[in-house]
């Protein structure tokens, strides 16, 4: 069993780098102290939607800095620092930058 973590430093190397996005997993399903929850920090630079995802769990987003767009089941929203978004379980969604860096915290939690 993996040790549960209560503190994690985001200055660690990113765990995943994709075209137009850098992702740091903060808490994963394996190491979170809260069953069924996970979180990550992503910085998007891509200005096109890469994919439209849906999950069996709920997903919340909080924009730390930058400007972008949030797509949820065919409706687009302008997003900027201070914006919070929610994608209920099973609903298709996507995020993209409007230009420059879009920094977002994401958290998954049970439906």
Salient structural properties:
6-stranded antiparallel β-sheet; 111 residues; 3-stranded antiparallel β-sheet; mainly beta; Jelly Rolls; globular
Concise description?
The protein is an all-beta fold and 111 residues long. The protein has strands at residues 16-18, 21-27, 38-44, 58-65, 67-72, 75-80, 84-87, 93-97, 102-109. The strands form two sheets. Strands 1-2-3-9-4-7 form a six-stranded antiparallel sheet, with no helix packed on it.
Description:
With 111 residues, the chain is mainly β. It has a single domain (26-109), classed as Jelly Rolls, CATH 2.60.120. Helices cover 0% and strands 49% of the residues. The protein is built from no helices and 9 strands. It has strands at 16-18, 21-27, 38-44, 58-65, 67-72, 75-80, 84-87, 93-97, 102-109. The strands form 2 sheets. Strands 1-2-3-9-4-7 form a 6-stranded antiparallel sheet, with no helix packed on it. A 3-stranded antiparallel sheet has the order 6-5-8, with no helix packed on it. It starts with 15 loop residues before the first strand and ends with a strand. The model has no long low-confidence stretch (mean pLDDT 90).
